[in-house]
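Internal tracking record. Fields below are filled automatically when a chain is submitted to the structure queue. Please do not edit lines marked as system-generated. If the sequence contains nonstandard residues, flag them in the REMARKS field before resubmitting.
Queue: standard
Priority: normal
Entity type: single polypeptide chain
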Amino acid sequence: MADINVEIDGIVKTVKAGATLADAVPHFGHPYAPGASICIVKKKAKEDAVPTKEFTVKTSKGVLVIEIKDLASVSAKIWLEKYKGLKYPVLLENQNAVSFGPFECDYDVSRGNKRYRKYDVLLGAGGFDPSQTTLIVCKKEHYAEYGTPADGVFATLVAGRTNLEKLQRGDVIESIEPYVKEESALQGFCTSDLSAKLEDGDRLITFAEIELSAHSPTGAETFYALTKDGTFQINSTAFAFRSDDTLKGEPCEYENFEPRKIGAVSLRTAGTGRGRIYISTANRASSLLHSVIGHVIYGMELPYFSGPGSKFSVETSPPHIMLLGHTIEESKELLDSIGIKFTHEGYDGPDNVIVQQMPVTSLEVLQKGEVVVTAVPKSKLIEVEFYYDLAPKTIEFFRHAIELKTKPIGALPSSMIYDDTYIFKAEKQAEKYKEIMPENVPTDIVKACDLGITNQSAKRMGYVGVRLVDETMFGPTGEKFGATNIIGKVLNPDNLRNLKEGDRIYIKEIYGESAKRLLLGIKADEEANDETEASEEMK
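SYSTEM-GENERATED OUTPUT FOLLOWS
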């Protein structure tokens, strides 16, 4: 049988006729996340195509996304005629702008010094000769005489701003394609069925690349936490968005007031649905409830065609810098490789583990070029396996209280220690605004190392405890069985034996079978898809 050509994330690959998605997986440029959807796009007839104002400029330093102001302008017409062939190197790069070219055009040159704003995109004639035209992207506000067509600035850089700063002489434009193609212009679908057959000319999109905004450092951390397994799960859908509800209810702050254009990634910071993260699939105005934290710069087809209950792979730019849970040695090697100054405090013995970093956010670390970490002996690290299938709501409370939902390590101060009983209280007083209903209460015995929380049937609700011996009368926090919710078990109890009152321990989750079932299935019963409610939230 003859071979067929399929395009995988912009690269044409040859596979055997009758090949399936499973046959294409080895050609992916990244590891495949089991269960993640892949978008298969089949182009319609050319006459059915819908014009677009947004284009993806793929360079050797990453993707730039530009939006044309007016498709009828002189510069836009030149762009639409020539963009497919503009595979040119960086000609000039300075503090004001980057230019690519030169290439030949024909237009009346406009002279005179003009003001250009940051992220303006224009055509400029070198020596006022249109045959020496360059594509110019502005890096800062400045005045210059570029010899543009009469319309001057014809587009704006809307995403890829981090990549713009990386460009220098020697870099090149590798390809330019329309960025967001409306669903009406495409025949596409998403599937996680690796037995799906491929046809000649199919285009596969296997991941979405998200560029996180420098204006939203804490929002970016929320997104990193949401996608720590490398996927974005779709819980809610509407015409204008897709949302992942995994961190619904988590506290977050408003940082960036910006229009929610197609591809914008935004975080709901107040009201119903606080903590939800959205990807816009239609243009919407700025909102005081939605902080824009990033943009999809590649793979927008995945959120377009994905439905509720599906998930797709994501890659973030810049990558996450989270040192908690790592050793000083591992972290220093990583940070040295990217030019970040590294300072450590606290314990530095061979069995160290990092439990705190400052600045907390990746974007601030990159901006400042330095990070300070605090380490403790691994004997301070307590490994816990949660019983998600028995006490999901109480586990959600606990993980929220010690910030284990957004960080790999959670801190927990000890409150009382007696005999073989250890009682703790989280610094965040989550019990003041969250319920702890009775759930998975013991009946006959509490086994050694079971981790329990006092529920709201007792005054000391929210206290956390563990016993190192079996107990038939009282729970791990000293309360009666009916006031105790069992949420998991401590896997390394010996690390508790030298603990003193007031000491702080650090919790690390070890994923057991119930956690794996949860991660592979739905993310939470309480976050069921409600399209009507979700649509109201986006207003």
